[in-house]
Amino acid sequence: MNDVEKIPQRVELALVDVIEKLQKHLADPEANYPRDLINQIVEQRENVTDKLLALVDNFCKSSIRDMTDAQWMEGIVAFFILSKFREKRAFKYVVRLFEIPHETIEFALGDIAISHVPEFLASTFNGDWETLYLLATNYHLEEYMRSGIIDIYVLFYKYNLLSREQILKIFSDLFVDLYDDYSLVPSMLISGCCDIHATELSEQIEKYFANDIVQLDFINRENVQEYFSRSRDEELKKLQESTVFDYIDDLEKEMSWLFRSDD
User: Fold this and answer.
1) For residue 1, pLDDT beyond 50
2) pLDDT tens digit string along 214-241?
3) CA dist., res. 79 & res. 91, Å (int)
4) Which residue in 66, 142, 56, 61 sits closest to 99, CA to CA?
5) Given CA atoms 186, 118, 245, 134 in this order, what sign does their dihedral have?
6) d(CA 191, CA 218)
7) What pLDDT score was predicted for residue 261?
8) Over the chain, what is the mean pLDDT?
9) How confident is the model at residue 102 (pLDDT cuts 50, 70, 90)?
10) Which of 17, 24, 144, 226 has its CA 20 to 30 A from that of 46?
């Protein structure tokens, strides 16, 4: 009986050890991508998730100035893995990444901010539509990350998490709330309208162009007309086939660039 009782503890220690091995690996600045270790962690998802959440919690609580390179890597890699897991409990921590002051964001996250944090947000989304909308409309946050939220709405439409009526309502509201926004986000909103073939919002789109709100080097009237000249079914098929913005899935593809190359 005693031997049987000890088995779960031994298993738990072995699983925790996988995360400890990852931490030791990430402490080496010359480390390559730990393919086998990451695969083991993915296989043991149910048992390692709480440990990974503890890593991102520590990342968000720590001062960027005092954080070591190893601690930074631990947090970022944990965000990637939790996104792969579609772990909704991680959503609140990704929101905290979004809320890093824009003056600090490049130092804190580097290229991760624009290239992956919106994907983290989509991949861990917990159904908190209000927070998602507030992030998109908060003028004080980093504009490219906020622009990524438009992509998230389009992604949710692509995978039927949003009906056409719902996304049109959200975009219509955004046209009102972003009217005095001088960032890239209003232009990204129009790009999102093109992605979903939102001809129903043509009047609001034209108002933005007429009032010089749109960054014409990003998108112009001719671009919109070209998109809207095609059929809705054609554009939906194109959207469904696109992989430009999606959930985090292939971890090696997404984060191997963080490590020393094997070449």
Assistant:
1) no
2) 999 999 999 999 999 999 999 889 998 9
3) 10
4) 142
5) negative
6) 9
7) 73
8) 92
9) confident
10) 24
Residue 184 buriedness (CB in 10 A; 0-12 / 13-18 / 19+):
middle
Owner of token pair 């593809």: 253
Q: Which two tokens stand for residue 83?
A: 């996104």
- Say which residue the tokens 């091995």 belong to: 21
Helices (H) and strands (E) counted in the chain, each on its own, are 16, 0
> At 139, which amino acid appears?
Y
Whether residue 150 contacts residue 175, with contact meaning beta carbons closer than 8 Å, is answered with no
Q: Are 41 and 22 in contact (CB under 8 A)?
A: yes
Quote the CA–CA distance of 196 and 100 in Å, as a whole number: 30
Q: Please state the pTM of the whole predicted model.
A: 0.90
Residues 116-159 have pLDDT tens digits of 999 999 999 999 999 999 999 999 999 999 999 999 999 999 99
* Domain range annotation of the chain: 1-127, 136-246
3-state helix, strand, coil in the chain (%, to 5): 70, 0, 30
Q: For the chain, what percent of residues have pLDDT higher than 90?
A: 85
